[in-house]
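Record pair follows.
FIRST:
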Amino acid sequence: MKQMEQKTNENKMGVMPVNRLLLSMAIPLMLSMLVQALYNVVDSIFVSRISEDALTAVSMAFPIQNLMIAVGSGIGVGMNALLSRSLGEKNQKQANESAVQSIFLMAIAYLIFLVIGLAGAGVFMRSQTKIPSIAEPGTQYVRICCCLSFGIFGQLIMERMLQSTGKTIYTMITQGTGAIINIIMDPILIFGLFGMPRMGVAGAALATVFGQTVAACMGIFFNLKINKEISLRFAGFRPKLSIIKQVLAVGIPSMIMASIGSVMTYGMNKILIAFSSTATAVFGIYFKVQSFVFMPVFGLNNGMVPIIAYNYGARKKDRMMKTIKLSALYAVILMWIGLLVFQLAPTWILKLFDASENMLSIGIPALKIISLSFMFAGFGIVCSSVFQSLGNGVYSMTVSICRQLVVLLPVAFALSRLGKVQIVWWAFPISESVSVVLSVIFLIRIYKKIIKPLSLETETGPDL
């Protein structure tokens, strides 16, 4: 009787059949990630209707936006790993502290970007261009996004808390609602519909932060009213360095990883522009479309991380290994579906962006070659998330740096010296194959040092 009562009271991440648990947590996140990917494309379409300079201004603001998301996501990942592990260890006090201290870190992050928005937006844009029709709206966009970034930071931390306790259906609701509101408000604020003033690029920024703020408010509501596994109490709050260090130990490598993509994109653009602006445009199209393949895998990973962290804290090795194996299987299947689409329909993909004959001649082989990296990417992404969930974010950071900076850019540059842009695209599958080898090496090390020594406790619930 006592055993049955224990099982009933335990968080579902410790007792629910692994396959059903993983799917129940991952599918809502995968769907919300797809909505986010769709939003990114639709948002660019609306802005492009203003003018090409407007689209350029928003594109130039991307590094700051990406940095905000990188910082917020990094803190969220660090909290996620510690909170889930604490719940698995039945350490409720540490679980609560990890949430509260992470909110404190998010508040600090917001203050930093508030200063950047007020004092650095103009400097940032003028460092990239002196053209007033690009620099001025771009400055407006950066300033609004930074000064009102409490929305994105609040959304990220609240959604991570829901993920940590297995309530990913509510994360899907917050993310989906925020993205849909953003899409609806974009044309209203940009073009001045329904009596609203025509705000142009500033309207696009306001639509973005409005959607984020609504999502953050919903996340706060869900955590306070529904998420009973966490108790948020700020009475007598003081920064606790021991908790902050644990959160940042995983979070900082994650922040760096999320920021590396911007550096890689900049470097690839510099390499490709030497061939033609069309080659650079093809690379941009690839990045937009590939998000529809990678986003579901990232959603799967976000559902996987708290399961692994919880069961690591609960010393349930078998459940951890089943979660890793199933996640790798699903990730590989998703990436291979994406590979087939890129291989079979590159012309259709490019024509979505009104591709010219010249773009088709460059883009068709580009999409076919780059997408070969999908064969390896799914497994590598899962490995990276396993490292993070077990508190070894440095491994994830190392793999990411090697893939995008140490291998990809030098190989792409070397291949570009051969004088044919078609050869440059091979840098992607080459770098991905190197990174998956490195991921396997780190995974074996993690298994030997962390997973294998776990005591083999008897599972109290049904499995697959």
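SECOND:
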Amino acid sequence: MTTWHALERADLVQALSDAGPDAPTLCAGWRTRHLAAHVVLRERSLVVPAGLGGGPLAERADQAIEDAAAQGATAPGFEALLEQIAEGPRRWHPLAWGGELANVLEFFVHTEDVRRGDGEVEPRELDADRTEALWRQLLRMAPLAYRRSGAGVVLVRPDGVRRAVRRPTGDQGTVVVRGDVGELVLHVFGRGEAARVTLDGAPHAVEALRVTLPGG
């Protein structure tokens, strides 16, 4: 059976290697070395993952990423970060058991953060099996990502497969988000400005969706 998160990890390492340590990314304020540091510390620290969503550990997490990114500013330092990403998490770390659920979308999105950081590029061509692997994880993630939206959300693929992932609140209405599966993933992760999707719905419903996701 294909281990999709391993393939996504390899793609991320290659994208970072191709870009070098100081290329722009879709993550505001981060160069590629910051993104690489984030991935390493996500898998090798307990403090950083706990602080990524804010809270009392957020400042420590941010500083740890800045320190690791500074070490990655040189070619040898950046290569060391990439080697650690390729190696994956330590066996004691919770993400060592995360597998597909924790990593497939994470690595796919960060690869696109690197690829699209310097402007518009053509989406990667994904084979049918990889598309389905992304779709399965997307359907798990989407209800959580859209939970603050008053508008309902229906995701629609080019092949006509559709899934309602959020019911509207009151009379907010529903927004239909159409695009290739990879583009839908980017929208769900707040990369809407870089994602090639269309939003169909009443203007107030579309706006209700937009304000819940950065770049949505």
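COMMENT: The radius of gyration is 18 Å.
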